[in-house]
Amino acid sequence: MSYTLHRGDALTVLKALPDECIDAVITDPPYNSGGRTSSERTSRTARAKYTSGDAAHDLANFPGENRDQRSYRSWLTELLTEAYRAATEHSVAMVFTDWRQEPTTSDALQMAGWTWTGTIPWIKPASRPRKGGFKQSSEFILWGVKGTLNKDRDLYLPGHFIASQPRKGRVHITQKPVEVMQQLVRICPEGGTVLDPFTGSGSTGVAALRERRNFVGVELSPHYADVADGRLRRELTQDDFVLAGPEA
C-alpha cells in the first residue's frame, strides 16, 4: 500500500489527476457552517465556530470556512465534478456535512454527476446539549455512486455510526474517529485508491492504509499537511507499506 499527500489547493490538484485513477472519494470539506446567522457562518474562524470558549486545547484554525451558501455549492460542485472524472466506474463519493448544508451538498453531489444514493447519520454522544431545545448531536455523510454500485462484492456496511470525536491525542478541530473512517473506506475495493481532497490531520488516510487501500490526499494548510504527513508516515512503520510521499 502507498500514500501520496499533495500540499496545495484541492481543485488545482484534482484537475491534474488522470481520468479513472481513484476508486472512492471520502472527504470532509470546510462547509462554512457552525453559526446561527449568515454573518456568524461567514465571518468567524473555524476555531470560533467549532470549539467552545472554555476549550482546553489550542488547535490550529484551517482555511476555507468563509464562503456563503451559493459560492459553497458552486465550489463544491466543481470539485466533485473533477473527482467524478478521476473516479473509476462504480466508485462511491462520501461527503460529510451538517444539517445546515445538507441540502446544498446533495445538490452539488448530483450536479457533479454522482447518483445520490443515501444519507448516513453520524451520531456523536459527547456533543454539547442545547438549552431549551434538542441536542445537535449528528453530522451526515451524503453518498453517491458513479454509474451503479458493484453488486459483485460481498460487502454489507452499517447505515449509521455512533462515535464521539477523539479526545486523547486530538490534533484537529473537526477530527474524525479513525474507527468510523475504517468502516467508510471499505466501500473502496481492497487494493484500490481512496481520495480525500481535504485531508486535514489525515484520519481518512490512516484508515485507508489500515484497511489495505492506497491513499491520495490534498491539504491546503501547511500546518495540517505536516500533521497528516507525520501520522501517515507513522502508520507506514506499522506494516510493509510503500511510501509515495508528500508532494509540494
From TrEMBL:
The keyword DNA-binding does not apply. This is Methyltransferase. The lineage of its organism: Bacteria, Bacillati, Actinomycetota, Actinomycetes, Kitasatosporales. Belongs to the N(4)/N(6)-methyltransferase family. Keywords: Methyltransferase, Transferase. PROSITE patterns: N6_MTASE (PS00092). The keyword Transferase applies. Its EC number is 2.1.1.-. InterPro entries: DNA_methylase_N4/N6, DNA_methylase_N6_adenine_CS, RM_Methyltransferase, SAM-dependent_MTases_sf. It is an enzyme of class 2 (transferase). Pfam families: N6_N4_Mtase. Residues 22-228 form the DNA methylase N-4/N-6 domain. Residues 27-50 are annotated as: Disordered.
